[in-house]
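Entry for tryptophanyl-5'AMP complex. Fields follow.
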Amino acid sequence: MSNKNNFVNRVLSGVQPTGGLHLGNYLGAIKNFVPLQEKYESLFCVVDLHAITVWQEPAELISKKCEVAAAFIASGIDPKKSLIFNQSQVPEHSQLAWILNCVARMGWLNRMTQFKDKAGKNKENVSVGLFAYPILMASDIMIYKATHVPVGDDQKQHLELCRDIVLKFNNDFQKEIFPLPEPIILKGAARVMSLRDGLKKMSKSDVSEYSRIMLTDTNDIIAKKIKKAKTDAMPIPNKIKELDGMPEASNLLSIYAACEDQELSIAFKKYQGKNFSDLKSDLTEVLIKTISPIREEMSKLTDDSNYLQEILDSGSQRARIIASEVLKEVYDVTGLSSKV
Ligand code: TYM
């Protein structure tokens, strides 16, 4: 299938192998990858080169990479339909990233809010890689001429930067080499919030383990975390509009709705006017139903490292076929080709 400019419709997304995967990664991204593979040629990448922008223990990095690959498969990504691979095993990502470093402008990167959040007051002491990170992300997308990029809401700005880089590249070299990638950010769970603070994103870097549900959490731990989850001072309101001032209720109801593949309004109807305890006990059940099969499958897969290795090797070999062709086209148009 091709789009109007004769680019193949192609999906690419990436997940970092750092700190384990949480419910936000699953509901905001990985769950949405699954139906896309039925419609589009799809590539899902364990972005280890992104992970090392902050210090990673080498041995731990290896096991975290296996965990992400296992989570992809356990969530329903079929390695026969989609390519699953480690970013570092397709060197064309880094090769294109350098060229894009020379296309992107400092001012564009200076505006990236995620860098400001991550670097905080420590700006002078973080790695150069952390600053240049969004360019490598653009390269991940562009090296496959991906047309669709499913992500959570926090990646929106990075996707906009990628689109700016595509426009400037095509314009600088006066050829439509790259398609403009479309973000796919689904409404329901695009931003799953912390269970300790409904105004903060659920994140691996939060100091409180009770702020997030991990895909590896046991049923007991899931139950405990939901029991402890922060609630608003008032019970769940009678009108959906009143959820606006109730971040905790909004978050718990959104999680419930996303797990049940429902609109928020349907989940709201079930709990309007009720106490948080009713919602929490059903939410625990729904989360266990969602997470326990994934957790069990992940555990089987990570025990079978030969199988994972085969999938990752075959994924990177097949990804390189596409990536090397695109890189060649870029070398030709930029004057970097071997021809003199
Ligand atoms: P990462 O590894 O932080 O997160 C992986 C995916 O999970 C989504 N996500 C969330 N969605 C909803 N609620 C949350 N609380 C939440 N937390 C995380 C993220 O939006 C993401 O989709 N830069 C990317 C990885 C990346 C990438 C790419 C993505 C590298 N190259 C190319 C797409 C295309 C990142 O750090 O995601």
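NOTE: The pocket of tryptophanyl-5'AMP is lined by residues 12-16, 24-25, 28-29, 47, 50, 137, 140-141, 149, 151-152, 154-155, 158, 189-192, 201-202 (CB under 6 Å).
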